[in-house]
Design a protein that fits this description.
With 656 residues, the protein is an alpha+beta fold. 50% of the residues lie in helices and 11% in strands. It is built from 22 helices and ten strands. A five-stranded antiparallel β-sheet has the order 1-2-3-4-5. Strands 6, 7, 8, 9 and 10 form a five-stranded antiparallel β-sheet that branches. Strand 6 and strand 7 form a beta hairpin. It is globular, with a radius of gyration of 28 Å.
Length: 656
Amino acid sequence: MLLNPSNSTLWGRLSAHRGLFGRPLRSPAMLLVAVCCAASLFAADVPPLRTNTAVEQLPPWKHSPGKYYWKSNSVGNSAQLLALFCRACATSGSKPEDVPLVAVLRDTLGDNDPHNDRVTDVWLLTYSRPSIGQRVLAAVPFFYWRVGGGSDKPSSDPKPLLNLNAPQHPMWREVERDLLQWTLFDPMTTGVRATSRAYRTNQRNYERLHLEEAIGYLRQAPVSAAPDALTGDQVNTVVARLALRKRLLGGLVAEGRAAKIGKRDGFQSQAVRIRNWELLRECAGRTGLVFQPLSLAGGPQQYAILWFPLGSSFHPSSSLSAVWKLLAIKNPWKDERLKNWHGPVFSRVLDSHGALVSPAVNLVPLAVYSLNYPRNPLLLVDFRGERHLRRHEVLQRTINEVTAGVIGISHFTNWYYYVAADLYRFVATRHGHPLDAAERLDCYAQFRVQLALDQRLDPELRADIQRGFEKLAMNPLSSAPQRQFTAAKKRYARLVFGSDDQGPVEARLKRQRRAEIASFGESTAGRMRDSLLHAVTFGVYTRAARRDSANLAMLDIERRVSHQLNFLHALLKSGTPPEVACDPSRIQHAIAELNDLMPFVRSRRVQQHARATLAQLDEQTASAAIKSHATLVLASLGGEEQPSHTSVPGIAAAIR
């Protein structure tokens, strides 16, 4: 209400000032702060609902086995192109077809040792390049429609969605774009500022949409230690990198933390779904509605639908206004349309808890919810009021474009306006309003593709859900999911064709290997310098090692050294005696491999790290064998005894 353009008094006062180029907006800002502070004093959370978290009542979160599978293609003799397929998720005429969704490039260095494998690139195969017409419409302020089905033309180059060897590069590109907007376009006329900001918003949302699509696909991927699939740690690392790509400084997170972040986010997402599942089921029980969880495209039960039982009566014992506000729908028991319903009716053999009963009950679908929104279930489709969700999205976008694009309110000069807006969002969120636009977009991105991939839902119900959800398609750059699946098949065929010997994929892999060798053991300041030079030159400069026949062998040594040092570092960080937390033979194997490989490492920083790790291991262990082994290797690294290259079997020949 506070930021509603229909509020003529407040909005008129805001419009009367010119922000950056006139007198600061002190009066409306003070009014907003005062009103929001008063509202926060009287704010109250939605009344807590009693939830039963008994283990036997929790839903099955595992996705259906066999729905998704990996397909492997060789890239030269030293890498793999792994593509994730969804089985029978599209139709060609009347024949079901498998759809390629995501592809990853795993650099194996041509051996069977999983410790030196590295996932380097991720392609979202369903990405379609926007047409020129779409880009023009994306720059039109206050244009919130997707015209037609969008583009189904895949990009001709093998550029991936994310390069995992250089996750900081997209971060610096975002900084460049923001600086360009603030310093060049914002000081210009209102038309230039509004147009550039409209395009920037649509472009940012388009990128986030694809990142979330890739994360959703990979969360369904099977994990295995087999050579034709990704391991659990590799999937968690890729998912974490994609999720960190959406954060401001996510590209600076160290590689060792990525897998832990991906695993932690997976547990947090599951906890959010469990909480929202119980909350929505309890709301349905208190309002006399029927709750049914939905599993789309063989995935976990991330969605739910509320049904209205025809011919039933309901008499609540207390006011349920807070519950209806949480559900974001009008009270169906007072809706005259449902008393004389002439629309589609579905027969379901369910009780109020979703259990099978007899006879069947005639039900009318009321709403579909996402269980992935962090605070409460997010309404995706309202079958009785399909347009009010779109009005909410349009209103929020309009407010942002008016304040930042038309009036020119700045985060720096008019910071008090944004403080008041944040305070209002905090108060509204406590009352159950989903005001986080980024999290809503993530939920929309997951639902749109899973609904399109699903082939088991009732066709009539599926058509009704799609018709209601399409109202939320507001980005001119986006494409319809079916167009994206068509583009995915074309892009996958091009990617496989480019994976031949001397193809563009292998050429890209060789450049990445040289860049990885150059960055091995580099300090944080050095990496920041190289990243800035890469950003300033618009990607022309990339620090890389010279071309050499020994590059593959050196890369193998560096990756194995990094693996063993990370293993020992994680072991020591736990605080438990190493020989208790892990098999002593595994620790001795790591020490022996470091003893063999460290003479070939030229980085002083890595040498210092190895000495510090072995010294700490020597202090913490109580095993005489481990202690003596670590002491000998420390003496060797200290310079007392340097083995020659010929004393290490296999490596000298590889380097020669």
